[in-house]
Amino acid sequence: MPRILVLAAMLALVARPALAADSFTVEPQKIADEKAVFATVESTNVVPARARIGGTVAELSVKEGDRVTQGQVVGVVGDEKLVLQMKSLDAQIAGLEAQLAQTQSDLTRAEDLFSKGTIPRTRFDEARTAFNVATNAHRARIAERSVVEQQLSEGKVLAPAAGRVLKVPVTTGTVILPGEPVATIAEQNFVLRLRVPERHAQFLKKGDSVRIDGDELGRKEALFGTIQLVYPQIEDGRVVADAQVAGLGDYFVGERIRVWVSGGERESFIVPASFIVTRFGIDYARVHKDDKTVIDVPVQRGRFLPRPDMPDALEILSGLRAGDVLVRP
Description:
By secondary structure, the chain is α+β, with helices and mostly antiparallel strands. The chain has helices at about 1-15, 80-115, 120-155, and strands at about 25, 30-45, 45-50, 55-60, 65-70, 75-80, 155-160, 165, 175, 180-185, 190-195, 210, 225-235, 240-245, 255-270, 275-280, 280-290, 295-305, 315-320, 325. The strands form three sheets. A six-stranded antiparallel beta barrel has the order 2-11-14-13-12-15. It has a four-stranded antiparallel β-sheet with strand order 3-10-8-5, with no helix packed on it.
């Protein structure tokens, strides 16, 4: 008698109706026929921080891997000739100031004597001309000194954009010419640069989604991105495209990552992996029948195809039909 009660209880459990929250209706869906390609982590722009004057690198304030902001000083280039020019101009300005003071005194005296009629008009005009010449000469030397000061200030090499320093090709004491790079900086907006075989070019367009296995970046969950730009030029039989992926990181440049891209569309059955159970090496799905019973149906699973709306999406190759209602085991 107890054995009969146990069997009845088991039958009652099997015949229990499924809850809506624990059920999933199988329907054929259009899915992307994904192909695995390799992409590299690259910056949208790699810009050099160039020296504006020639001279000797006196100071380097950054190294490879450092993060910099726009306008930050990454190095200082010094030129001893500019310092010598500055000292020479300072001496000339000091002499011109003394000459200007003398001509000012002579002009004041000439004005006083001319007003009393002691000296002729020509002497007064000569004194005024000498004062004007001394004034203009003093202004010219000050302007030359300002030019040298500007050249000295241009010895500071500034970061043209915010980002990460990729390379510093010089060391302290290196002699460089105007326009030579002191550091190479990758802008902080990193992208995935895909190179897809040209036979897939017709399936690749702006706005398409791409998928990255979480293991590639040390994460458990998959990452998803969107193609932002498809380059019109084909290089070595491959189409180049840039994809924007959140959480990609901004340190390693040139890192290779496997990316899944769409190579077309096909119909298939996609179910959450939590509705599939494996026993003794065989996969089963619990199907809810119209007679309120639940039976275990063996299925053949395909690949995992995680999506933003279904992180554990699993493709089912056989065993299920459209309209089947699955019950969570």
